[in-house]
Design brief:
Blueprint: H1 34-45, E1 50-54, E2 57-63, E3 68-71, E4 76-79
Antiparallel strand pairs: 1-2, 3-4
Length: 84
């Protein structure tokens, strides 16, 4: 039985602590400050999220699309809202 990878064990900037990450991925816990993080969360809360629809199934997650949205019922790629 294989175990699931844990990307964040020993996460840091040195190669010795990023060996769990896929090549090219880096974890930067302090990339943005607390104020910017709070602003991003507030902006996310104002986005028009809606339940994910896949054919006749409504998913248990809410999504929002920018630029294009795939309509699974009509099998078409459609225009959606602009990037915020």
């Amino acid at each position: 039985m294989t175990s699931q990878l844990n990307f964040f064990d020993g996460a840091g900037d040195s190669p010795a602590t990023t060996s769990n990450f896929p090549q090219g991925l880096r974890y930067r816990p302090e990339l943005i400050g607390r104020e910017e993080e709070a602003a991003l969360v507030a902006r996310s809360l104002s986005l028009p999220f809606r339940e994910f629809e896949f054919h006749d199934y409504t998913g248990k997650r809410r999504t929002v699309s920018f630029g294009r949205h795939y309509d699974f019922t009509g099998h078409q790629l459609r225009k959606s809202g602009h990037w915020p």
